[in-house]
Amino acid sequence: MPAADAADGLLCYCRAGFEPELAAELTERAALAGLPGHARAERGDGLALFLGDGAALARALPWRELIFARQKLQLIAHLRGMDPSDRITPIVQVLRGLPDGSAAFGELLVEHPDSDAGKPLAGLARSFGNALRPALRKAGLLAAQDDPRHPRLHLCFTAGDTAFLARSDPRDSAPWPLGIPRLKLHADAPSRSALKLEEALLVLLDERERGALLRPGMRAADLGAAPGGWTWVLARHGLQVTAIDNGPLRPHVFDSGRVEHLRADGFGWQPARALDWMVCDMVEQPRRVAARMAQWFAQGWCRQAVFNLKLPMKKRWAETRLCLDLFATQAQRPLAIRARQLFHDREEITVYAGVDGP
Q1: 228 is in an annotated binding site
Q2: Are 246 and 208 in contact (CB under 8 A)?
Q3: How far is CA 226 from CA 14, 87, 252, 291, in A?
Q4: 245 is an annotated ligand-binding site residue
Q5: All domains in the chain, ordered by first residue
Q6: Model confidence pLDDT, tens digit, residues 279-338
Q7: Based on C-alpha coordinates, what's the Rg of the chain?
Q8: Considering the entire predicted model, what is its pTM?
Q9: Closest CA to 256 of 223, 220, 301
Q10: Secondary structure in 3-state letters for the chain
Q11: What residues does the RlmM ferredoxin-like domain cover (predicted)?
Q12: Would you say 265 is a known binding-site residue?
């Protein structure tokens, strides 16, 4: 018989290799919120658990404030030893036994960790999702059509006979499967780094904020711009961009007529007048970048910024907190600050900061 162990706490997805950083973040944030619990994470698994009062943790740890979590889910159960010939029955039994009576979920996502061990489960996740949806609808556990007014139901396979059952609040979780927005590199993009900024604007700003804060005619600077990926993204949004780099930009970056290239050092250049935006993806020590970004806000040189912090190989959560605290302190003004390790990031996190943020 399969084991369906009730589970209480959070299940969060992350980039494979950053499970300890996610576990450390969840542990610290829960402690600051006064909530007991403990993390479970193995490097390379692509996920971390934080066991405790799941409902309280979900309220105290908003998804938008988490840095290393691509997705935040509230645990329901851990299913082990499922019979491949009938995985549906134990799932339905667990859902029918929920204390809230399990009002219909609005959507079903059958997933797997984004890890070396999890990726081979992608085919199973797709095929099983097609079988599970009609069964749940027949049982009255899933809405007839996707309904954002109800929680989402997630089934995360970690092996063919093992999975976590969890739920998410559509208002407090990533809207994409696995928490990963699937972006396609545009044929004209000067480099793959363009995907970093595109994802940052999609993940760190909501639709209303993008409309208000990214308007044609705004002025921006791109520090360390070569070969021009981030400059190209901003120009496509209609911004006038000053690209700062001693290296060359791809020639077609200038086709829009909205780009000026200045051969200068991004750590030394400053604008003659205040800009709407500054972006920066320079390869440098994260504390030095954080201090320079703070100077831009302290001097009033920009109102919004997106920048990357390249993390060390060890103590990455500690370095993340130190750099963000340094930035917030040295900026010398109230700012909306959000940070996330994006899908297109590697050994780095991406930060949004803004005077005009919510």
Answers
A1: yes
A2: no
A3: 29, 52, 13, 22
A4: yes
A5: 3-179 (3.30.2300.20), 194-354 (3.40.50.150)
A6: 999 999 999 999 999 999 999 999 999 999 999 999 999 999 999 999 999 999 999 999
A7: 22
A8: 0.93
A9: 220
A10: CCEEEECCEEEEECCCCCHHHHHHHHHHHHHHCCCCEEEEECCCCCEEEEEECHHHHHHHCCHHHCCCCCEEEEEEEEEECCCCCCCHHHHHHHHHCCCCCCCCECEEEEECCCCCCCHHHHHHHHHHHHHHHHHHHHCCCECCCCCCCCCEEEEEEEECCEEEEEEECCCCCCCCHHHCCCCCCCCCCCCCCHHHHHHHHHHHCCHHHHHHHCCCCCEEEEECCCCCHHHHHHHHCCCEEEEECCCCCCHHHHHHCCEEEECCCCCCCCCCCCEEEEEECCCCCHHHHHHHHHHHHHCCCEEEEEEEEECCCCCHHHHHHHHHHHHHHHCCCCCEEEEECCCCCCCEEEEEEECCCC
A11: 9-73
A12: yes
Residue 133 pLDDT level (bands cut at 50, 70, 90): very high
What would the two tokens of residue 63 be?
């998804």
Is 229 annotated to bind ligand?
yes
194-237 pLDDT, tens digit per residue, is 999 999 999 999 999 999 999 999 999 999 999 999 999 999 99
Cβ atoms of 73 and 11 within 8 Å: the answer is: yes
Token representation of residue 127: 């095929």
Q: Which residues are catalytic?
A: 310
pLDDT band at residue 104 using 50, 70 and 90 as cut-offs: confident
